[in-house]
Write a structure and sequence with these properties.
It is built from eleven helices and 18 strands. By secondary structure, it is of the alpha/beta class. The chain has two domains: 233 residues, FAD/NAD(P)-binding domain, CATH 3.50.50.60; 121 residues, 3-Layer(bba) Sandwich (FAD/NAD(P)-binding domain), CATH 3.50.50.60. The strands form four sheets. Strands 1, 2, 5, 6, 7, 8, 17 and 18 form an eight-stranded mixed beta sheet that branches. Strands 9-16-10-11-12 form a five-stranded parallel beta sheet. The structure holds flavin-adenine dinucleotide (FAD). It comes from Natrarchaeobaculum aegyptiacum.
């Protein structure tokens, strides 16, 4: 692990899928020496994503095996074959097979080890980023340092949403959000009664995982009919060029771009293999489906009493909200940058990015040395910006511009 006290050429903020993939690309392009690169993340490399998969019981990826943190598309398949783990590549109706979560993470760890990424990891949270034109100052919980280029890859930055009726009880003993870092599904009693709120992949996956203990009562509160989709948007969007022109026809960071993304994303959908598990759970009466919307929730002696719009009342030991992430521009760091910096933001605080390089544009219209990868780059890359394939596309664009910038 690296200390946060020496300067760097490139600093990646966030060591998730996007941050790790960017590091892999930069090192494999031999654009810099490992000592000139650092990845700052308080959770450890890929740890936050691994934890989210654990928290919702996701043990198979939705995306195909060619989407992983390495650069060679077939690296994960070859990794599986070399270790006799082909059975961890699961079949799918559309496209290539999908890896299990354990195969995906073992392969990612193997890539990180081969490039010694742990040695350039700084265990700290970034609290501020200041653009000094020819350098960027990175303020962290472990001190301050300077870098020539900063790549921001912080995912949703820790923001998630509770339904309005749950805000007063949020994070109390009986009420949790699935993305709260402290939420631990393994700590729920084997005979508990559990309510899960939400109708998308996370809620359904969590319900089927928790329902594995026959002594539990699992109620899924899903107010709308389930929608089944293999992926999170049309595969056309995975090709980026050709379709992103539709986005780029609108002004950067505009409401019009946001609307194109919202329309293109199949948010709240469930892939067929997860839906089949839900159907089995319902048939075996391991899961009870409550179609009505919760109106009120009250704590009562360590339990929570919920009342639905159709007057159904239930007393539960635990209520878990799987109601999605918040806006990617509303995490702590983005909010701070919006208030304090000279970088341009647009609709709902979206960063104004250059469509060719993902560089964040300054108030004076010049590109800053800060580039963005991940969900916050969706106005440029479209509905798959947050996904593994989005990291690959962002990596191509960022490495291309850095190649010319570093050589100049
Ligand atoms: C359960 C789940 C399953 C998914 N399955 C798939 C799938 O099958 N296929 C697919 O393509 N996509 C999938 N996705 C979507 C997407 O690929 C993942 O969300 C992916 O983890 C996004 O990577 P990221 O690096 O942008 O964000 P994250 O994985 O969230 O990583 C961001 C990192 O930034 C760090 N960070 C945040 N703030 C700071 C700060 N201030 N300073 C320093 N570090 C900071 C965090 O600690 C974190 O490690 C899934 C998402 C979820 C939640």
């Amino acid at each position: 692990m690296m200390k946060a006290d020496s300067d760097a050429l490139v600093t990646i903020v966030g060591g998730g899928v996007h941050g790790v993939h960017l590091a892999v690309r930069l090192l494999q392009a031999e654009l810099l020496e490992p000592a000139e690169l650092r990845i700052v993340d308080p959770s450890g490399l890929l740890e936050s994503f691994r934890q989210k998969c654990r928290q919702c019981g996701m043990n198979e990826f939705r995306s195909p095996f060619v989407h992983h943190v390495g650069t060679d598309p077939f690296s994960l398949r070859d990794f599986a074959q070399a270790r006799g783990r082909e059975d961890e590549l699961r079949s799918t109706r559309i496209g290539a097979e999908r890896p299990t979560a354990s195969l995906f993470f073992d392969h990612a760890e193997w890539i990180c080890d081969r490039l010694s990424l742990e040695s350039i990891h700084v265990d700290a949270r970034v609290t501020d980023i200041v653009d000094h034109r020819h350098s960027v100052e990175i303020e962290t919980t472990q001190g301050c340092f300077s870098t020539r280029w900063c790549l921001l890859a912080i995912g949703h930055g820790g923001s998630f949403t509770y339904p309005e009726w749950a805000t007063e009880l949020a994070s109390t003993e009986p009420v949790a959000h699935v993305w709260e870092p402290s939420f631990d599904p393994d700590a729920i009693g084997e005979t508990a009664s559990i309510g899960i709120v939400g109708g998308g992949i996370t809620a359904v996956q969590l319900a089927t995982t928790l329902a594995r203990f026959p002594g539990r009562d699992v109620v899924l509160f899903a107010r709308s009919p389930f929608r089944v989709e293999t992926l999170e948007a049309s595969t056309d969007w995975m090709h980026f060029s050709g379709v992103t022109e539709n986005l780029h026809a609108h002004p950067p960071a505009s409401r019009a771009r946001e609307e194109v993304i919202t329309e293109a994303r199949y948010d709240g959908t469930v892939p067929p293999y997860v839906f089949r598990r839900l159907q089995r759970g319902l048939e075996r009466e391991r899961i009870q489906l409550e179609r009505s919307e919760i109106e009120t929730a009250t704590e009562a002696g360590g339990t929570v009493v919920v009342t639905c719009r159709d007057d159904t009342t239930l007393c539960l030991d635990k209520l878990v909200c799987a109601t999605g992430f918040g806006s990617p521009y509303d995490g702590e760091l983005f909010r701070h940058l919006r208030r304090a910096s000279t970088l341009q933001t647009g609709y709902r605080g979206a960063p104004v990015l250059d469509d060719d390089t993902l560089r964040w544009i300054r108030q004076d219209g010049t590109p800053s040395p800060i580039a963005v990868s991940g969900v916050a780059a969706q106005h440029v890359l479209g509905p798959f910006a947050r996904n593994v394939i989005g990291a690959r596309r962002a990596g191509e664009l960022i490495v291309e511009f850095l190649e010319s910038a570093v050589e100049a």
